[in-house]
Design a protein that fits this description.
- The protein has 495 residues and is an alpha/beta fold.
- It has two domains: 279 residues, Rossmann fold; 92 residues, ANL, C-terminal domain (GMP Synthetase, Chain A, domain 3).
- Helix content is 27%, strand content 28%.
- The strands form eight sheets. Strands 11-12-13-14-17 form a five-stranded mixed sheet.
- Strand 24 and strand 25 form a beta hairpin.
- Helix 1 packs across helix 2 and helix 10 crosses helix 11.
């Protein structure tokens, strides 16, 4: 941990730019001052190994609060302004938050307990020039991220320092070849774990974070920052990148050195088109659920002969401290070229969910002395050991006795329609599945679409209903919001 956070104690970085927020630069010395100020406040509450909430915003103090929580020997829990007060209250109770740090006075869902502090009002008087760093063990928690739960109650994923250090070891082993004081894009919400690498990687290497403002149109702001500031390293969610596709012919980013796609399935056609815009960048596909610490498999995407399946780019092989197993529905190991549930084990695998022991017992299992997590993703492995994402386990259904992969329906539809599609399943009160296909765009009618699909799909895979939308809904992390699509269908359909 001391090595990871050494940038806070490196005087040679003092005048270098650590962060660019809304076109305003903050130096490492300015960031350090905010970190030490907030750390002093945390210590005044005598907190160690405690969960501290951070109500996030586009402010240097959000970054500083994360680092202050760490150097004082605690773990952080991000709280997003878009969360309803009831969700924040639920997270507060489950995580047993001892303190909430914010840049506003009143956080929704937080009453008098725990104490909420507006960090912008802390007095700098008497602040020492340095601050002690409390060492942590491998098993001490670094953060808890709350993801959606199938029951409607958020699931708190615990990530410890051993998980995080293992992840960073792999990133270091990749030898990305970035220049000194490189410029890094940070497009992710702090509640999304890709934000962790987008914060730490630049700071560890003395680079500059370029923060994508939440008040601007995200995909346009991403392009502006990439071009205007000649960004060297970026991780982007494909759904957001797809919004830029109409402008690809006029985009050229010769300074980009590392371009990673992550957060969801990576479409082959989108990747190939984007590679033309980034002629000098090495492309990667980073795959990994929150439970396996940011990303746990990597595929180095070549400029030609890209491995793919059903139009989705290969997710590659496990990181250095991770292992992958494919198991069938009975839990039996499968062999190469046979699909199965993907289990990820090793040093990056989370200790489990907070206070959900039934789920921990079912999804986290030990095989041959190694703790594994059932990702819920269906994959296949080729003879080279590379993994291919086929879809979520809950995106695989049986219709009239036939097993249907929703990703295959989407791929064939997009190939023939040249439009973005999203297949969902709605289950009625009788337990019967209904296959629905959403198509983004209104320049084509549903009957024409159906006629095209009949040329590409067997009858049992044809969607029961085809719905057109001007624009697909995205969640706060920039991913396609399938739950909202399902809700839209079900709210307008008698069942």
């Amino acid at each position: 941990m001391r090595e990871i956070l050494s940038f806070l104690y490196n005087p040679s970085l003092s005048e270098s730019s650590a962060l660019c927020l809304d076109d305003t630069y903050f130096s490492y010395s300015q960031l350090r001052e905010r970190v030490f100020l907030i750390a002093r406040h945390i210590d005044a509450h005598q907190l160690r190994n405690s969960m501290i909430g951070i109500y996030v915003s586009d402010h240097i103090d959000t970054y500083a609060s994360i680092l202050a929580v760490w150097i004082t020997g605690n773990a952080y829990v991000p709280l997003h302004p878009s969360y309803p007060s009831g969700r924040i209250e639920s997270i507060r109770e489950m995580a047993d938050l001892k303190l909430v740090l914010s840049t506003i006075e009143d956080v929704p869902g937080i009453s008098d307990k725990p104490v909420t502090t507006n960090t912008t009002r802390l007095s700098i008087e008497g602040l020492p020039p340095t601050y002690p760093l409390i060492e942590r063990s491998q098993n001490d928690l670094a953060y808890i991220l709350f993801t959606s739960g199938s029951t409607g109650v958020p699931k708190g994923v615990r990530i410890n320092w051993g998980n995080l250090q293992s992840f960073l070891r792999h990133v270091d082993s990749m030898h990305l070849g970035l220049p000194e004081q490189a410029r890094y894009l940070q497009m992710f919400e702090f509640t999304f774990d890709l934000s962790v690498v987008s914060i730490l990687l630049p700071l560890i290497h003395g680079g500059t974070i370029y923060h994508v403002s939440s008040t601007r149109v995200k995909y346009l702001e991403i392009y502006r920052l990439l071009e205007e500031y000649e960004i060297h390293f970026a991780i982007i969610v494909p759904s957001v990148l797809a919004m830029l596709r109409p402008y690809f012919d006029s985009i050229l980013l010769p300074n980009l050195r590392v371009m990673a796609l992550s957060g969801e399935a990576v479409p082959l056609g989108l990747t190939q088109a984007w590679q033309v815009c980034c002629p000098n960048a090495q492309f990667y596909n980073f795959y990994g659920p929150t439970e396996c610490t940011i990303f746990c498999t990597v595929y180095k995407i070549p400029r030609s002969e890209i491995k793919s399946h059903n139009g989705i780019v290969c997710i590659g092989s496990p990181t250095i401290d991770s292992k992958a197993q494919l198991r069938d529905e009975s839990g039996i190991l499968t062999s190469s070229n046979l699909k199965g549930d993907l289990w990820i084990g090793g040093a990056q695998t989370s200790p489990g969910y907070i206070h959900i022991e039934e789920l921990n017992a079912r999804l986290f299992l030990e095989f041959e002395g190694i703790r594994y997590y059932n990702t819920g993703d269906i994959v296949i492995q080729d003879d080279d050991g590379d993994l291919f994402y086929l879809g979520r386990k809950d995106h695989q259904i049986k219709l009239n006795g036939y097993r249907v992969e929703l990703s295959e329906v989407e791929y064939q539809a997009e190939q023939h329609l040249k439009l973005k599609t999203a297949a969902i399943v709605s289950t009625d009160q009788k337990g019967i599945h209904h296959l629905i296909l959403y198509v983004e765009g209104t320049e084509i009618d549903s009957e024409t679409i159906r006629a095209q699909l009949q040329k590409a799909l067997p009858k049992y895979m044809l969607p029961e209903t085809i719905l057109l939308m001007q624009t697909f809904p995205l969640n706060q992390n920039g991913k396609l919001d399938r739950n909202q699509l399902r809700s839209l269908y079900e709210s307008n359909s008698p069942q």
